[in-house]
Amino acid sequence: MTAARQKRKRHGCEILAAGAVMFALASGIPASFAATTEAVVVDWHTGLAIGGYDPVAFFADGKARLGSQDFELPYAGAVWRFCNIGDREAFMSRPDIYMPRFGGYDPVGVASGAAVAGNPTVWLIYGEQLFLFYDQARREAFGADPQGILAKAERKWPAVLHTLSP
């Protein structure tokens, strides 16, 4: 490829990237969502962490409950929703307790070295931590050997985290 053609190609890519940024700004995508981290499972269309489910409700109510837009909190590059102000305040005081382990990624996937988004309706509290699973089969696999899978997932999580966007 000639030097002139390389320069045109590089210039075209720069224009395409600038166009994508302009489109995002013009379409009303909030700047905070543009910088959202993938270290937490986030819906890129809404900016909601773990599908808008209340992370405290898993512990307090023993079930997956959708939060309300009336009780939102921006944290860790995502918007978290809660069912009530009490749940939001509990999360604000101890997010380390209520956030799902591995940012909501399936621990079986993490143990395999892959970032597989967990489904908030397929969950388990184990060792006082919330885990989200891709599907029921993975939850059952985890239940068969939770300590073994967690040991692998803990070892592989830094490498998996490194593959995600900052």
Topology:
Elements: H1 3-26, H2 31-34, H3 55-60, E1 68-75, E2 78-82, H4 85-93, H5 95-98, H6 107-111, E3 119-126, E4 129-133, H7 136-144, H8 146-163
Explain this structure to me?
- The chain is of the alpha+beta class and 166 residues long.
- The protein folds into two domains: 33-97, no CATH class; 100-166, no CATH class.
- The protein is 48% helix and 16% strand.
- It has helices at 3-26, 31-34, 55-60, 85-93, 95-98, 107-111, 136-144, 146-163, and strands spanning 68-75, 78-82, 119-126, 129-133.
- Strands 1-2 form a two-stranded antiparallel ribbon. Strands 3-4 form a two-stranded antiparallel sheet.
- A hairpin with a 2-residue loop joins strand 3 and strand 4.
- It starts with a helix and ends with a helix.
The number of helical elements comes to 8
How large is the share of residues in beta strands? Answer: 15-25%
- Following the backbone from N to C, one meets helices and strands in this order, namely HHHEEHHHEEHH
Q: How many whole angstroms does the radius of gyration measure?
A: 19 Å
End-to-end Cα distance: 34 Å
By secondary-structure content and strand pairing, the structural class works out as alpha+beta
How many structural domains can be distinguished in the coordinates? Answer: 2
Helix content: 40-55%
Q: How many DSSP E strands?
A: 4
Identify the overall geometry.
globular
The biggest beta sheet reads:
2 strands, antiparallel
Q: What is the averaged pLDDT score? A: 82
Oligomeric state of the chains present here: single chain
Which residue ranges are poorly predicted, with pLDDT under 50 across at least 5 consecutive positions?
1-37
